[in-house]
Amino acid sequence: MMMRLALILVGLLDCVAAYPASLRRGDSAAFIAAEKPIRVFRGGEGPPPPAPSGGVAAAPEDDGVEGIKKKARDTLGRVKKVSIEDSVKSDADLIRRYFLPGLKFRWDIFLTTITIVVLSIMWFSFFYKHCYEDDRCENLLRWGIDSQLADEEPGISAKGAQLRPDVVIVFHHPDYKYTGQGHHATSAMMARTLVSEVDSWKVVSPDDEVPVRIAPTTDAPRVGAKERDAIVRGMSQDGWVALAAEDGFISIMTEGDGDEFEAHPSYPSPGQEAPEKAQPALQPLVNSQVPFQQQPFHRLRKLMKDGLTYENATAPLTHLRRARSALTGEKTPGGVNPNAKYVPEMPTHHSSRVALLQDLYDVLPKWGFDLAVFSSIDNDELFVCISLANEEAQTSYLLRQNTQLQVRKDVVRRLGIDQPPNENASSPPRLRFDPRIVSNLHEQGILANNDPRELYECYHGRDTSGCIVSGKDRFRMIFKELCNYLDLDAARHDNLVVDWYPCHSNAWLRRLDASWASFRNLCDLTFVQPICLVQDYFGSRLAFIFAWNGLYAKCLLCLSIFAICIEVCGMAYKHKHMGEDHIERTVNRRIVLAFSVSITIWARASYNMWLCEEEYFIHLWDLSADNMSQTVRPSFQGESKPSPADRNLTEKQYPAHMSKSRQICSALITILFCLVVVLVMMIWQNTFQDDMNIVASIVLAVIITIFSVTYNILVPILTDWENHKFQSQYYDSFLWKQFMFQTVNRYFAFFQIAVKQRYTAVGCPPEGCLAVLRMQLVTTLAILSVTRIFEVIFAALVVRFKIWLEDYWLRRSQTEGRGSVDERSYIELQCKFVESRLQEQIQNMLQLVLSLGFVLLFGAVAPIITPFCLAVFMVQLRATAFVLIKYTKRTLPRQQLGIGLWRWIISCLMQASILFCGFLIAVYSDTFEGMPMITKMAGVLLYVMCMQLVCFMVDVFVPKTNDEVNTLADRRRRVKDVIMKRSENFAPPGPATRSGDRVHAQYATEVATGQWDKIPHYIASKGSGSP
Fold first, then answer.
1. Phi/psi at 187 (nearest 5 deg)?
2. Does residue 215 carry a pLDDT above 70?
3. Alpha carbons 90 and 84: distance in angstroms, whole number
4. Is the separation of the CB atoms in 516 and 882 below 8 Å?
5. What distance in Å separates the CA atoms of residue 837 and residue 894, rounded to the nearest whole number?
6. Burial 912-939 (b: 16+ CB within 10 A, else e)
7. Residues whose CB falls within 8 Å of the CB of residue 982, separated by 6 or more in sequence, listed in order
């Protein structure tokens, strides 16, 4: 019936389209007079009449309206004669004959699939409706903890004052005799540590520190311009500038009065005798307008200059001499520079460490930071504690860095805004810190005192009265200032410092331990976490990782229960028909089709739920791409050029083509390693293809582990070599290389079994190739899951053992010396903890995503692997939280907009799972057994299209957004508007208080009394234009 109505509608539209425009306007007489009547020729009526000499076919004279009506009647008549059933059958036969030849519909398979899918939908709906809990609650009452802890955390004594550090830098104790402390510290080592304003390497005179420039000489014999430029570049990079000037390859220029450059009088032309004056040396041009002694870290810079001068004066001339001999054919003697007059002492590791320590004590108090230092209990290290405790300094940094602070909840009530206090969407907004807003609200009577703590949310981990700057924000302020001048990671790598780390807060750790990292939470299968508390302490990047981990743990719990039920039913069915042939193969094939649809529904619903959760937290924490500042990596190498944002400023820049070239080379190396993995996996397949037993699974697990460890060592080297400018670029590059390699490493062997095993000489066993794939999946994933669990636990045990061993030897040495043992402070103890930096965070997240990929790709073959994946998620969630609190240095509170690139990776895995499940159904299903290739390809395409339709339906019932986000945005916008209006006193002043020109309201009396006839017309005078 519906098809018939559709055909009738098509016929009517055809008639309307043929209806002349003139008739639609009602001018039928004009149309008939101007146009020929219309005649439609149908098949069977013979050919149309021949065209006349003018080239236009003749048509019989009919009335235009009647002809159109006749055509409509003919169309409706043809529609009535159409048989819907015959049309559908003919089209279906056509599709079956050409695209699905030989395919027969199996009602038993269809009913089994529909039953399992319907049951899964019912179970998923029940679980998400009645068992699922989100992590959006901001208070800690669920765990019986007060959101504000008034007790103070222990600090360290600094001349009678308690100082609680935000950042700790550990130095070698100057009085302790370290091995190698007298070794020379190269200038390159100190240059890597000093990154502040080092625009480029230039030549300076060591007497007056006048910046000079170098250029190739034009009178170097038989040397072309390109060769001279190449030598100059080589000399500049290797520190041979002074020697190259002496041998006549370059001339040294210094700044004149204007833009011109003139030869420095102390450096003679080639062939002249050098005067008795100190030799030049390479020196970074830093704050040339500031006296050298007043520049930050001037002691370390002086050592770097002395070291470079020493290197220039004492290094052999091999590089330069060989270049000159190659170009001129002259032989030159080697040795040291005989004309060097200024040869300072070579800096040592000891002197460099002392200089850096003294420079820190010189500059940090000027920047508003408090300092304290104490010795370790074994007197081999110095702990420099940096803190931002001064309120004036905090205010200055809050204003300078345009920091956003959250408004207190009680302020919303004082503003006269009625919002439900217990709803998550009533979270107050974040406002830019501005003392004027506080002062104006105090004058309006909203705040009792002119105190920012009455407007902005306070943190009570350090001060009983509260502090508006959290420990996370204090660390960011200190770290940002230090990164402008120092690369602390490079200093640690070059052994200038022992270590550095953000210091933990005991008050925050107690709350996190009670609500999140305690072992008693292992039995909590709701997996609810205080994500807002995690974000306040560790930053949004780590908070999003744990939020994703927790949400998918909840979803995997739902899927695992259903998967176990499917496995139990399958085992019962196999046991009932134990004597029948090929029963295991039949059950496995039918489970693939049914459970693949269930996994698709579950994966799409879980993904949409995460998008909702992620969007909510992004709005809750006021994260946006515009507000998130790009962090320049201190190790970024580039040439100083005018900034694109402001040409008056200079910044490091690296050529884009060079950066792309390095990234391409890095990608090619990764692809090469992937090819090596593919080759090894093919060898493994050929070795064990006739006996896929437990030994094959163990060997495969060992191969996967070895390749993972090898590439984990290589990937940071490749990513560092790519020389990324921003931290986000480095993170994404590191991530995609790891995922690309680990995907091939983890999944290729199983793809190979699914695709290749049935075509080998051995072929499939009687129970089918799916049984082989299933056994290898379960065994290998069980081994990898147990390995990962023990890896997480072993990391905590190693830290505890190291601390115990060091304390044991310390107690033993102190007992032998004086009979008493000092207790190590918690600040000092953190130096022994492990790190959780970018690489560790990516590695932890990668293990979860790879485990999830096993469920998405191979869960239809072996549903029993779903509980193994759940176990990995559970242990990763609880054990990582425990290790993070107990045995890990505090992580850098990085900001990130959601989970970033991981979102795209998960989406790709979902699409790949649909395609791979379609392949498995087409190859191994009973429905497609013995069918031609075109039928199987059409079956894969049909399955993919159906799953896309299923995903669309899931999007309708489980949308990617929710109304709570819009409610949160509307309520925050309302609070911001009221605060700004009340703080700026937007009430319009009266006429008596208005200063300046008087305000005129023409015809105000007439408008007020309704005398509309007395309002005149407006007549513009000539030349006045429009009013």
1. -65, -35
2. no
3. 10
4. no
5. 10
6. ebbebbbbbbbbbbebbeebeeebbebb
7. 415, 440, 441, 444, 446
**How far is the C-alpha of 499 from the C-alpha of 522, rounded, in Å?**
33
Tell me which of 197 and 980 has the higher pLDDT: 980
Assess whether pLDDT exceeds 90 at residue 170: yes
Q: Tokens 């101007």 label which residue? A: 34
Question: Tokens 């200089």 identify what position?
Answer: 355
Structure tokens at 489: 């990671």
The Cα 445–Cα 416 span in angstroms is 12
Contact indicator for 253, 215 with CB cutoff of 8 Å: yes
Q: How far is CA 230 from CA 223, 234, 316, 992, in A?
A: 11, 6, 20, 79
Nearest to 282 by CA among 311, 258, 318: 311
Q: What angle do CA 707, 713, 719 make, to 5 degrees?
A: 115
Across 68-82, 345-359, 864-878, least confident range: 68-82
Distance between CA atoms of 372 and 376, rounded to whole angstroms? Answer: 13
Residues 178-184: contacts with CB under 8 Å, at least 24 apart: 178/349, 178/350, 178/380, 180/349, 181/348, 181/349, 181/350, 182/348, 182/349, 182/350, 183/348, 183/349, 184/307, 184/346, 184/347, 184/348
Q: Give the tens place of pLDDT for each residue, 520-532.
A: 787 888 899 999 9
What is the rounded radius of gyration, in angstroms, for the C-alpha atoms of the chain? 39
Query: 384-438 pLDDT, tens per residue?
Result: 999 998 888 898 899 888 888 999 989 999 998 999 888 888 889 999 899 989 9
For the chain, give the number of residues. 1027
| 43: amino acid identity, one letter | G
Closest CA to 706 of 736, 752, 735, 742: 742
Asked whether the beta carbons of 262 and 256 are under 8 A apart, the reply is: yes
Write the DSSP string, 900-967: THHHHHHHHHHHHHHHHHHHHHHHH-STTTT--HHHHHHHHHHHHHHHHHHHHHHHHHS-S--HHHHH
- For residue 605, the Cα-to-chain-centroid distance in whole angstroms is 23
Backbone angles phi, psi at 387, to 5 degrees: -145, 150
Q: Which of 873, 887, 820, 204 is nearest to 509 (CA)?
A: 887
- Contact call for residues 602 and 563 (beta carbons, < 8 A): no
Task: Tell me the C-alpha distance between 174 and 159, whole Å.
Answer: 21
Q: Where are the beta strands (DSSP E) in 131-236?
A: 156-158, 161-163, 167-172, 201-204, 211-216
DSSP per-residue letters across 168-189: EEEEE-TTS--TTTTSB--HHH
Contact in structure between 351 and 299 (CB atoms under 8 Å): no
Residue of 348, 347, 371 lying closest to 359 (CA atoms): 371
Contacts of 656 (CB under 8 A, 6+ apart): none
Task: Pick the closest to residue 773 from 897, 655, 857 (CA basis).
Answer: 857
Q: Contact at 8 Å (CB) between 277 and 196?
A: no
Instruction: Tell which wins on pLDDT, 1017 or 282.
Output: 1017
CA–CA separation, 134 vs 532, rounded Å?
12
Structural element, H or E, at residue 980: helix 963-984
Q: Are 595 and 578 in contact (CB under 8 A)?
A: no
Backbone angles phi, psi at 170, to 5 degrees: -100, 125
DSSP secondary structure code for residue 296 in this structure: T
pLDDT higher than 70, residue 800: yes
**Distance from C-alpha of 35 to C-alpha of 243, rounded to nearest angstrom:** 98
CA gap 258, 215 in Å, rounded: 18
3-state secondary structure of 460: coil
What confidence score (pLDDT) does residue 244 get?
Answer: 43
CA distances from 921 to 57, 122, 808, 935 (A): 59, 24, 62, 12
Hey, what are 681's tokens? 């996996």
Handedness of CA 161, 162, 164, 167 (dihedral sign): positive
Residue bearing tokens 């790879």: 850
Distance CA 509, CA 506 (A): 5
Q: How does the average pLDDT of the chain come out, rounded?
A: 76
